[in-house]
């Protein structure tokens, strides 16, 4: 694949399932990855980077299963410059209709000297060998120069030229540590176009991290300078401050087409659905003021703004909420709403849940409607998100009864269903949350440490649902669990149990300490 600067179509390469998943606590199981891959396909992304097959059996299986189940986008697997990595990636991608091997090696002086402990000449040879090997196994090969933005310009030009000569069809320039400034990064891309003689034989891609909050700005500057592929993630998920956010890049190209006349083939009406699914599965809550997908991104509360909006939406709104799939609610839900209306409401909110999850969510909706005067869309979103993350859980919440107040001891009576075996216990603790978590530990002994306990109210009022996040750490592994309920302690127990289930999945994966 090659692309000249005159072709204004930008390829969207989504790496939520690879770089996004590398974010501590964001790990996903196979079922969850498949669900996200399907939504990315519906969204219209061109390429899905589905994992790093050599990293673990779980990653290998995810790439393999996504290759079977998802047919429209190209499926990509990551590989270091090693022979085993490249062969393992090719093996995982075998069932894919359209596949890509993405191989990388660091090229900056700092990374070559301290991380790789290799001389530049050795790295140069490894580029040629790895790309040649990958190209013998797959027609579509992407090569990345890790820490590209801090690489010596002469060495960068030389390695890019050699990678293309060895058969790379896409050259990716990562700003691995999120250090670049837009003008500088654009100049780097322009330099490649000016100095690399065979540059027209490959697509130039960029991959920006957000350490200085500039990932999207750097990606857009690079497109303006000739890059025709951007690597990004839903909600900007990714290590440290994350990767460039797909939704921000795509909506900027769409909204400011006058200034940035480039097109992506994304069906933007599916953005909200993708954002919610990724947030629900990973437990990474989207900040309310996040561009495009934050809960407040289209909320106009100030009186002066509302007045303007009533006269003409364009006064304060540069994008229509419908363009990202946010539809003004037409269905009011209450305790008399039936299954049919509930399903229609879920459709309106952009959810596409399986029959079992729908039944469970409907049962919980009925319970909620008995307890709560008004049911808001946010309540239903919290409830469905809560069900979505629980499919295939080995440990399930049963009942919980807590005694708390000024007169101790605080106690929790809890039952859990563990692999189909229902067990109950009673525990004391220093407060009701401590007692509840102690009861969970009695029923399912483990050494994981509680690293975060966070509660937030889904809506206003004392009858609001609580949404709880619990982070557990065990042997360097971090997982986030989520739970929602009108009873904060039930939500806390659900979140803890959810985190434990994720830890079990993590234990099953033989994660090797690979850095990328
Ligand atoms: O940030 C980075 O450099 C990467 C590469 C593997 C593309 O993720
Ligand atoms: Zn990265």
Mind sketching the topology for me?
Blueprint: E1 11-14, H1 16-20, H2 30-43, E2 47-51, H3 57-69, E3 74-80, H4 83-93, E4 99-106, H5 109-116, H6 120-137, E5 141-146, H7 153-165, E6 170-175, H8 182-195, E7 203-208, H9 215-224, E8 229-232, H10 246-255, H11 271-282, H12 303-311, H13 339-348, H14 355-371, H15 377-388, E9 395-403, E10 410-418, E11 421-429, H16 432-443, E12 449-457, E13 466-474, E14 477-485, H17 488-508
Parallel strand pairs: 1-2, 1-8, 2-3, 3-4, 4-5, 5-6, 6-7, 7-8
Antiparallel strand pairs: 9-10, 10-11, 12-13, 13-14
Bound molecules: 3-methyl-2-oxobutanoic acid and zinc ion (ZN).
> In which order are the strands of the major sheet placed?
1-2-3-4-5-6-7-8
SS-derived structural category: alpha/beta
List the ions, cofactors and other small molecules found in this model.
3-methyl-2-oxobutanoic acid, zinc ion
Overall outline:
globular
Give a count of the beta strands, DSSP E runs of length 2 or more: 14
Helix fraction, binned, reads 40-55%
- What would the average pLDDT be, to the nearest integer? 91
Q: Write down the Rg.
A: 24 Å
Tell me the number of structural domains.
3
Summarize it.
The protein is an alpha/beta fold.
What labels describe this entry?
single chain; 516 residues; alpha/beta; TIM Barrel; Double Stranded RNA Binding Domain; 3 domains; 8-stranded parallel beta barrel; 3-stranded antiparallel beta sheet; disordered C terminus; binds 3-methyl-2-oxobutanoic acid; binds zinc ion
């Amino acid at each position: 694949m090659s692309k000249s600067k005159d072709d204004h179509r930008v390829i969207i390469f989504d790496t939520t399932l690879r770089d996004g998943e590398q974010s501590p606590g964001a790990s996903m199981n196979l079922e969850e990855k498949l669900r996200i891959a399907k939504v990315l396909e519906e969204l219209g992304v061109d390429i899905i980077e589905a994992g790093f097959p050599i990293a673990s059996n779980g990653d290998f299986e995810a790439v393999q299963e996504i290759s079977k189940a998802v047919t429209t986008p190209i499926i990509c697997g990551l590989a270091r410059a090693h022979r085993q990595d490249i062969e393992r990636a090719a093996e995982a991608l075998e069932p894919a209709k359209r596949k890509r091997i993405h191989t990388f090696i660091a090229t900056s002086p700092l990374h070559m000297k301290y991380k790789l402990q290799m001389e530049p000449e050795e790295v140069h040879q490894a580029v040629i060998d790895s790309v040649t090997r990958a190209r013998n196994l797959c027609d579509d090969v992407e090569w990345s120069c890790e820490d590209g933005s801090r690489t010596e310009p002469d060495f960068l030009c030389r390695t890019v030229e050699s990678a293309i000569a060895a058969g790379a069809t896409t050259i990716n320039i990562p700003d691995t540590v999120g250090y670049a400034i837009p003008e500088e990064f654009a100049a780097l891309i322009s330099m490649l176009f000016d100095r690399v003689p065979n540059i027209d034989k490959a697509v130039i891609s960029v991959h920006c991290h957000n350490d200085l909050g500039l990932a999207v700005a750097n990606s857009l500057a690079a497109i303006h300078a000739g890059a025709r592929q951007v690597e990004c993630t839903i909600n900007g998920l990714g290590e440290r401050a994350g990767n460039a956010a797909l939704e921000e890049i795509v909506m900027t190209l769409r909204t400011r087409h006058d200034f940035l006349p480039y097109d992506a083939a994304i069906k933007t009406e599916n953005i909200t659905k993708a954002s919610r699914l990724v947030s629900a599965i990973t437990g990474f809550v989207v900040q309310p003021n996040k561009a495009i997908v934050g809960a407040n991104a289209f909320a106009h509360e100030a009186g002066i703004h509302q007045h303007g909006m009533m006269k003409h939406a364009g006064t304060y709104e540069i994008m229509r909420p419908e363009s990202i799939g946010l539809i003004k609610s037409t269905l009011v839900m209450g305790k008399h709403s039936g299954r049919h209306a509930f399903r229609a409401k879920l459709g309106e909110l952009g959810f596409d849940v399986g029959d079992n999850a729908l039944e469970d969510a409907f049962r919980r909706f009925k319970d909620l409607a008995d307890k709560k005067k008004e049911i808001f869309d946010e309540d239903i979103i919290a409830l469905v998100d809560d069900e979505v993350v629980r499919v295939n859980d080995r440990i399930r919440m049963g009942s919980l009864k807590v005694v708390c107040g000024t007169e101790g001891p605080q106690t929790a009576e809890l039952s859990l269903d563990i692999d189909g075996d229902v067990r109950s216990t009673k525990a004391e603790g220093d407060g009701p949350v401590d007692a509840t978590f102690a009861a969970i530990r009695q029923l399912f002994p483990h050494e994981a440490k509680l690293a975060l306990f966070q509660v937030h109210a889904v809506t206003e009022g004392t009858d609001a649902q609580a949404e709880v996040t619990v982070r557990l750490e065990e042997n360097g592994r971090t997982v986030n669990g989520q739970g929602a309920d009108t009873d904060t302690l039930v939500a806390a127990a659900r979140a803890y149990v959810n985190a434990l289930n994720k830890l079990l999945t993590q234990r099953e994966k033989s994660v090797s300490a690979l850095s990328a």
